[in-house]
Amino acid sequence: SALNTGVGGEDFLGVDSSELKGPLGDNDNLSFEVMAFGGALGVLGVEIPLVETGIAASAVVLGLMVALALRPKIAIAAVIVGAFAIFHGQAHGTKHPEAASPLAYSIGFVISTGLLHLAGIGFGHFTRWPQGILAVRAGGGAIALVGVGFLTGLL
Known about the structure:
Number of helices: 7
Low-confidence stretches: 1-13, 20-26
Distance between the termini: 12 Å
Oligomer: single chain
Shape: globular
C-alpha cells in the first residue's frame, strides 16, 4: 500500500493515541496489538475488502481528529483506532515476501511498527508547547489531505 508504507499509518496512530491521551490513557498499546493481529491475518492470506480505502480513510479521519483536537470517548476512540489498525496491519502482512520466513518477517514488522508508533507518540508530545500544538495540528491536517488525495485518486 502506497499510503500505508509512504505515510506511515502506524506512526500516525501513535500521534493520534498521544493526542487522545485522555480517552485512551494506558490502553494505547491496544492499537499496536490490533495492528499486529491484522498483520497476522495478512500473512495467513486472509483478505479484507477495501483495505486500501480503509487505510486512506484512516488518514482522513485520524488526521482530522488531530487537526481539530477532537477527543472522543474511549469506546469510540478504541473502535476507530482499532478498525484502522486492522487495515494497516493486514496490508503489511500481505506484503510479506515469498522468500522470507513468516516468523522473521513478523518480528521485523512488529519491531519497526513499534518504533514508528513511538516516533508518533513522541511527535504528539510536542503539544506541550504552543508552537508544538500548531505543528501537530498542521501535521494532522496534512495527513488528512494526503488521505483525501488517495481516496480521490489524485495521489
